[in-house]
Structure formats: structure tokens, C-alpha cells
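Q: Convert this sequence to C-alpha cells.
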Amino acid sequence: MDKQTGSLSITNTKSTDSGVYHIKISSRNKVSYKKFRVTVWLDTVKVRAGDSVTLNTGMTELEEDSKILWTHGDHETCIAKINRATNKTSLYRGNDVRFRDRLQLDHQTGSLSIWNISITHSDVYKLQISSRTRSKCKRFVLIVNENTVSVTEGDRAELNTDVSELHRDSLILWMFGPRDRLIAKADLENRKISTYDGVGGRFRDRLQLDLQTGSLSITSTTNTDSGLYKLKIISSRETRYKRFRVTVCEDREREIHPEDTVESTQREKTEEIPLLKIYSGTSV
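A:
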């Protein structure tokens, strides 16, 4: 409690802290009362890596004197805030690359959007809304899962965009590996598709790009195709992202053990040697 103002702060709020709080201020001249309704929510939000997510305040419009504060993590680091009284909006400008140029704050509702989500965005996000008439606290548990594709060596891997139809001016970029090397590109406006062999020609003649959906197919997969694939779709309306973790497993049924090969070779040689001797002796 603030000794100067009498304001009360509740840290590390839980859902059990929800309820009505009353304050009574007595002085020589008067007695004043005030009450606050505090609501604490804990929502779980699950998304796929590469997608975008909006953490909704549940409000259609903020009050004129509302203050919004968005924080994340155990240390409740501030990533976005709004002060309606001063008409000022602030977004994270720190060194954490996870949030750089990925945040959008709705000035009307206070909802927070995060673009191009990655696994590292999985965390607890806290919303605080305060005004003259209300105080609201809400927590979101954000869980980000990767799109995983697992195939047997030699089979076909399908990386689906889940888009039924792309915009006419869309530019599709598929990238692979830690350095985001471009392996396929489609320019829908000019109806042009380009595929790249990759380092060492690993993808040569094995990539197929669907012009309608942007989905990528990898044929005759090998274990060197395992890794992280990133998709970026750019159009005049929006930019979309998606990530896939591809794992190519060995086909155990086709596997030939080295010891089996050695035994087979030795057996063949053993059978051939007597025949050679017989024919040699016969000739003499």
C-alpha cells in the first residue's frame, strides 16, 4: 500500500484475487468510500510457429482515461502500453529480437497482436487495464508448437500452407536451414516459378511448388532434407509466415547391414573358386 496516496497494489495476481474491493478513507472533515471490481483471467492460447496471434482484452472500446500495460515473463517485462488520456501508444524497442517489429497494439480495444510467432514466444503474458471506474488484470499462457512433418527416406514430403487460394499478387518464398537459404520462389503476378538446387545440389529436380496454394513438395527424400523450412507469403493485403520441422527417417526394411554384405561377398567368392580350378584342370 502506498502511504502517501493510500493506493493498493496486488502483485503476482491469481484468479482467486478476483472480487470486489472496498476502500474507506476517514478524515476530520469527511468520510469517503470507493469500490473496485477486480477480475483476473488465465487463458491458454495455442498457435503454430509462423502464425500470428492476437491476445484479446475482451473489450470493444477503452474508456477515455484507460491505461493499458502488456508484460511478459516472470520479470513482467513491459512490451506494449497505451495511455488514452495522452493518446500515446508505445511498443517494445529493446534488444530482445523476439518482439522487434512483430507487435501491433489496437488503440481502440487494447488487444495485442504478435506476428511471425516462433517457439521462443511461448511464455506468460499479462494484461493490466486501469481507469477511474475499473481495474482489470488478465493472464495468457501462450504455447507455440512447430509444424512437424515426418517421412520415411525415399517418400514424398508435403509442406502445406493451409491456404485454399492465394492473392493474385502474392510472392511466395520458401527457405531452408539456419541461414534461410532460398530454395523455391513463386511470383503469382507474373506466373513465374523458380526452384533452386541448394548447397551441393541437394534439392536438384526434387522440388515442386503449387501455384494455387503455395505448398511445397519434396520428392525422393533423403536424410539431408531434415531440418527447418520457413515460408513467407507477401501480398498487398498481408504478409504471412509459417515454419516446418521436417524429419526424414531411415527405412529399416531397405537397410542392408555391412556384415551381411561381407558374408554374401565371401560366399560368392567361395563358390566361384572351385569352379575356376575345375575348368583350369580340364583344359590341361
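Residues 260-284 have pLDDT under 50 and may be disordered.
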